[in-house]
TrEMBL record:
Family statement: Belongs to the L/F-transferase family.
Entry GO terms, CC: cytoplasm
BP GO annotations: protein catabolic process
Entry-linked InterPro entries: Acyl_CoA_acyltransferase, Leu/Phe-tRNA_Trfase, Leu/Phe-tRNA_Trfase_C, Leu/Phe-tRNA_Trfase_N
Domain of life: Bacteria
SUPFAM superfamilies associated with the record: Acyl-CoA N-acyltransferases (Nat) (SSF55729)
Entry keyword set: Acyltransferase, Cytoplasm, Transferase
EC number: 2.3.2.6
NCBIfam families named among the record's database cross-references: aat
The protein's name in its UniProt record: Leucyl/phenylalanyl-tRNA--protein transferase
GO terms, molecular function: leucyl-tRNA--protein transferase activity
Length: 248
């Protein structure tokens, strides 16, 4: 990368506002560097379509273009996953819980190996910050319990009617996919139209996610984060939001 192509970072002190999108060449790197991971900072960042991602050193804040987004109406429920959910439910082996073990979920996400990555971006400071965000009511875990054990799950940020997916883990086959399917069912139940997936991957695309222009994404987020916050609860009947005959 030449000097003329190097991204211009905004350096932030704790409490500083985030820069306006488009004032730096964040397509080539982060939007900003610095600030802190307090609840107020994280809430302000996500409400503007910005998220932290770093492994060491100063905090890096990102707002990629384009943005990978799963519109919940477009979620692809494969016939095999539908049958797996139905089979496990009918056998009494599957239970979905929300926020039962948030700390455990984020810790297991941090320990999950990622292809092409050494270590994890979910460092201890990040784990602590998202746990604080969870206690404040703006971060949730969706957990797949099989035979009484936590087999997989995910955690996400939830502000107003906007949902921002963060990470998932799986200890048993399909456990993380089931957690995502449950999250989609919750989103449909509470009229939350999209889940931010941040970066494009083939796996997300196979589930129905697609790239969205950043300006369009930010317009959605501005509207959704301003709406009234809803409390989440999942019951087996909520699987019908995913497919009307899933449990038959």
């Amino acid at each position: 990368m030449s000097a003329s192509e190097c991204p211009a970072f905004a350096f932030l002190e704790p409490g500083d506002p985030f820069p306006v999108h488009g004032t730096v060449t964040e397509e080539l790197g982060p939007l900003a560097v610095g600030a802190d991971l307090s609840v107020s900072t994280l809430k302000a960042a996500y409400s503007q379509g910005i998220f932290p991602w770093y492994s060491s050193g100063p905090i890096l804040w990102w707002s990629p273009h384009p943005r990978m987004v799963l519109q919940t109406a477009q979620f692809h429920l494969s016939s095999s996953l539908r049958k797996t959910i139905a089979r496990l439910h009918q056998a009494g082996r599957l239970h979905i819980q929300v926020d039962a073990h948030f700390q455990t979920v984020i810790q297991r996400c941090a320990r999950t190996p990622r292809e092409g990555q050494n270590g994890t971006w979910i460092v201890q400071d990040m784990q602590n910050a998202y746990y604080d965000l969870h206690l404040a009511g703006f971060a949730h875990s969706v957990e797949t319990w099989l035979d009484g054990e936590l087999a997989g799950g995910l955690y996400c940020v939830h502000i107003g009617q906007a949902v921002f997916g963060e990470s998932m883990f799986s200890l048993k086959s399909d456990a993380s996919k089931i957690a995502l399917a449950a999250l989609v069912a919750l989103c449909r139940k509470y009229a939350m139209p999209l889940i931010d997936c941040q970066q494009n991957t083939a796996h997300l695309a196979s589930l129905g996610a697609a790239e969205m222009d950043r300006s369009t994404f930010l317009a959605h987020i501005s509207t959704l984060t301003a709406q009234q916050q809803t409390e989440w609860a999942f019951s087996p009947a909520d699987w019908h939001y995913l497919h009307p005959h899933i449990l038959r």
